[in-house]
Amino acid sequence: MTSPRTPVLIGFGQVNQRDEDATVEPIDLMAAAARSAAEPKVLGAVDSIRVVNILSWRYRDPGRLLAQRIRADDAATRYTGVGGNVPQTLVNQACLDIQEGRADLVVIAGAETFRTRTRLRNRGVKPDWTSEGDSVPYADGANEGEPLIGPAEIRIKLDRAPYFYAMFEQALRIEAGESSDAHRRRIGELWSQFSAVAADNPYAWSRKALSAEEIWQPSADNRMVSWPYPKLMNSNNMVDQGAAIILASAEKAADLQIPTERWVFPYAGTDAHDTYAIGERLQLHRSPAIRIAGRRVLELAGVGLGDIDHVDLYSCFPSAVQVAATELGLVGDPRPLTVTGGLTFAGGPWNNYVTHSIATMAERLIANPGERGLISANGGWLTKHSFGVYGTTPPEHEFRWQDVQSAVDAEPTRKAEVEWAGVGTVEAWTTPFDRDGSAEKAFVAVRTPEDSRTLAVITDAAEADATVREDIAGAKVQVHADGTANLE
Q1: What spatial distance separates the first Cα and last Cα of the chain, rounded to whole Å?
Q2: CB neighbours of residue 109 within 10 Å
Q3: In 19-156, where do the E strands start and end?
Q4: Which of 87, 223, 284, 388 has the fewest CB atoms in 10 Å of its CB?
Q5: Are strands 265-273 and 384-391 parallel, antiparallel or unpaired?
Q6: Strand, coil or helix: what is 144?
Q7: What is the pLDDT of residue 145?
Q8: CA-CA distance, 370 to 261, in Å (whole number)?
Q9: Helix (H, G, I), strand (E, B) or coil at 107
Q10: What is the 8-class DSSP label of residue 419?
Q11: What is the gyration radius of the CA atoms in the chain, in angstroms?
C-alpha cells in the first residue's frame, strides 16, 4: 500500500511561444505552464516553488513572482544555480522533502524567452519586463554551483559548450577508429532519429523530420559551428519555452482528488559529477559519473535496464548521448534514446530542458500504465549528472536517493598541466568557424610525454584549416608557454 508520504508527480505542463511578443517574459511562460499542469485549487495549495535558473532575464526571486501569478501566497521559494542537471536534481530533492514531511505540494518550473530577448537586443530594445528592487532578497540557492571552467580553459578562451562537446566528439571518433566522414554520417543518423521523435512530439520546437545528410552536411542553412558539428548538431537555445511539473505526497494528492491514474511515481534518483577541470578527466570520451550514478539509480529503483521502457538521455550534442549510451549499456539498443527529440529539435531552453523531458516522460507513462522511464540530466561540459526512474505502478519501497560522489571520486584521473611547454601529441581537438565559414583557430587537448594533459590553441589560420582537412589525431604539436600551439 502506498504510504501517505510517498512522493507522486501529479501534474505537468509545457508551453511554446512561437510568435514574438515583447510583453511575454519568462515568468509568464512559467505561469502558463503551471496552469496547464493543474487546476487553480491545486496551484493555490502549493507550499513550495522551485525555479530552474533563467538566463534570458535576471530575477532576484522568480519563485515569489510565480507564486503571485498562480495565487500560491504562502509558498516558500527556491532558485537554482546553472546546469542542465538541475531539474532532475530538484525532483530528487523535492521527493526527499515530501517524504520527510518538509513539503506537501511542490512546483518545479522554468522558462526562457531567449529568442525574443535576443531579437529585441539586436534591435537595441530593452523589454519592459519585471524588475525586482534591491529590497527583494535573492532566493535561497541562487548563488549555488561550482565554476565550470578554470585557469587552463580561461587562458586560451576555451569557454563554450560547442567547443567542449565537439572535442569530446573527436575523442569518441578516435577511440572508435572511424574516418571523419564515416563518423559524421553515423552521428547524422543518430540525430536524424532524434529529429523523427521531435516530429511526433506536439511540444517540440522543430517538428520537421530531417535526413542524416541534411544534418551532418554543412549548407547555407546549416553552417559549420565547431568541427565536426554544424548548426544542426548543436543545442537550439533560440526558443521561447516554459515547463512546470508538480509533485505531492500521496496523502495530499488524494486530498486534492487527483485521480490515481494520473499519478507517476518517482522510484529513485542519483546525483554526481565528473571532474570540473576537463584536463583532469582520465579519458575525454568517458564519464565515470554517468556510469556509476546511472547504474546505481536502477539498483535503487529495483529494476534492471531491460525493465525500462522509455529513455530520455540528455542530448545537447551528439557526444553527450553517445557517452551516456556507452556508460549505461545502451549502445545498439533498439529503444529510442529520447522521448522529446532532444535539445536541437525539441528545444534547448538552457537549463530547463529536463523539466520538459520529465513532463513528456510523465505523459508517456500515463498513456502506457505499467511502463517505466529513465531520465538523465547533464550540466556543464558533461560535468554534473542527475538521474531519475519513474513509473505508474506504486513502488515496492519508498523513494530512494543517493549521492554517489564518493564512488566517482575514487575513479582514476589524469594530471592536468595548466602551464606547460614542449612537444606533445594531439589527443583530441575542435576547430571553431566564423559566420563566413572560415576556420578561426583550433583547440587541442595534448598528451605530454609524461602522459599528463594540457589544453592549447592553434591560432595560425592555415594550421587551423588543416585540422579540418586532415586527421591530426596523434600528430606532434609544439605547445608554447602562453598556451598557443603549432603543428610540427
Answers
A1: 69
A2: 30
A3: 48-51, 76-79, 105-113
A4: 223
A5: antiparallel
A6: coil
A7: 77
A8: 11
A9: strand
A10: S
A11: 23
Give dist(CA 163, CA 381) in Å, integer.
Answer: 9
Half-sphere exposure of 212 (CA within 13 A, CB side): 12
Dihedral sign computed on CA atoms, order 128, 130, 134, 140: negative
pLDDT at 1: 54
* Residues 351 and 325: beta-carbon distance below 8 Å: no
Q: What is the mean pLDDT of residues 17-36?
A: 96
- Please name which of 316, 344, 355, 310 lies closest in space to residue 15, comparing C-alpha atoms: 355
Q: Exposure of 462 by Cβ count < 10 A (0-12 exposed, 13-18 middle, 19+ buried)?
A: exposed
Q: Exposed, middle or buried, 62 (CB in 10 Å: 0-12/13-18/19+)?
A: buried
DSSP secondary structure letters along 199-212: HT-TT-S------H
pLDDT band (50, 70, 90) for residue 431: very high
Whether residue 79 contacts residue 63, with contact meaning beta carbons closer than 8 Å, is answered with yes
What are the backbone angles phi and psi of residue 152, rounded to the nearest 5°?
A: -65, -40
* C-alpha cell belonging to residue 230: 554544424
**How many CB atoms sit inside 10 A of residue 40's CB?**
10
**Residue closest to 344 by CA, chosen among 487, 231, 212, 457:** 231
Sign of torsion over alpha carbons 467, 469, 473, 476: negative
* Gap between the Cα atoms of 39 and 259, Å rounded: 13
Please, how many CA atoms are within 13 Å of residue 33, restricted to the half-sphere of its CB? 33
Contacting residues for 422 by C-beta, under 8 A, at least 6 apart: 448, 449, 478, 479
Model's pTM, two decimal places? 0.97
